[in-house]
């Protein structure tokens, strides 16, 4: 039997965000892409991962919000995870004071827009800062909007609730001992390279990979580079 690899997508993403990687990763691993349903805390999403995984250990990769879910899995059951990949993600909780108030207001405004005018309209406002400028106006940009539109405002609201209540995950990093990949796009404005460098420094033996010409959606913006990094990671 092949070892298991669980892939945790980010905010409002589905299996399309991992589609470019699946052919190569499936050659060596049984891949499971998570669907969080209406779960509205990162801890509940992490428990779902553990309930979905077959008995024994598994490799775990998370993109964006999915990276935070992966870290909550490590908090709950570190002995279950053989390999960890954190892509375009973060560990900090909601900031105190004005920065946190501003983030909360911005996220809730997007939820309101999705409820009032639909997911695609919301996506056209949200997505430009999530991808490299060269992606704007391309078929890839529209395909990401298609992915958002496959979801609904209720799921969006649940996941925003989870992110606004996110715990500090930095305390988990020094406890990680397995092969770890920390990857981000060099032009990721939301989860920038220096943030990932700090994450990698906090994990023993972690590999830091920066993907050129990519924003936050690295798995689909630069799929070949991300796939190559993940294949190397799973071979460690």
UniProtKB/TrEMBL annotation:
Signal peptide span: none
Residue intervals of the AB hydrolase-1 domain: 5-228
One Pfam family in the UniProt entry: Abhydrolase_6
Alphabetized UniProt keyword annotations: Hydrolase
One MF term in the entry's GO annotations: hydrolase activity
Keyword presence, Transcription: no
InterPro entries: AB_hydrolase_1 (IPR000073), AB_hydrolase_fold (IPR029058), Carboxylesterase_BioH (IPR050228)
Record protein name field: Alpha/beta hydrolase
Organism lineage: Bacteria, Pseudomonadati, Pseudomonadota, Betaproteobacteria, Burkholderiales
């Amino acid at each position: 039997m092949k070892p298991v690899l669980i892939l945790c997508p980010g905010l409002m993403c589905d299996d399309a965000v991992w589609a470019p990687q699946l052919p190569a990763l499936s050659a060596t691993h049984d891949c499971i892409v998570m669907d969080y349903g209406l779960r509205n805390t990162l801890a509940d999403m992490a428990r779902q991962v553990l309930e979905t995984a077959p008995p024994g250990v598994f490799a775990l990769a998370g993109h964006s919000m999915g990276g935070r879910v992966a870290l909550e899995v490590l908090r709950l059951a570190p002995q279950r995870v053989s390999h960890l990949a954190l892509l375009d993600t973060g560990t900090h909780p909601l900031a105190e004071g004005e920065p946190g108030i501003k983030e909360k207001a911005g996220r809730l405004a997007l939820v309101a827009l999705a409820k009032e005018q639909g997911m695609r309209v919301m996506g056209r406002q949200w997505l430009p800062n999530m991808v490299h400028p060269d992606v704007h106006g391309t078929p890839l940009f529209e395909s990401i909007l298609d992915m958002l539109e496959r979801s609904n405002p209720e799921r969006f609201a649940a996941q925003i609730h989870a992110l606004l209540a996110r715990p500090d995950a930095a305390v988990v990093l020094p406890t990680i001992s397995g092969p770890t990949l920390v990857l981000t796009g060099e032009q990721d404005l939301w989860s920038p390279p220096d943030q990932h460098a700090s994450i990698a420094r906090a994990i023993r033996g972690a590999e830091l990979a920066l993907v050129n010409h990519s924003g936050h959606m690295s798995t689909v913006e630069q799929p070949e580079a991300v796939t190559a990094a993940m294949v190397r990671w799973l071979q460690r």
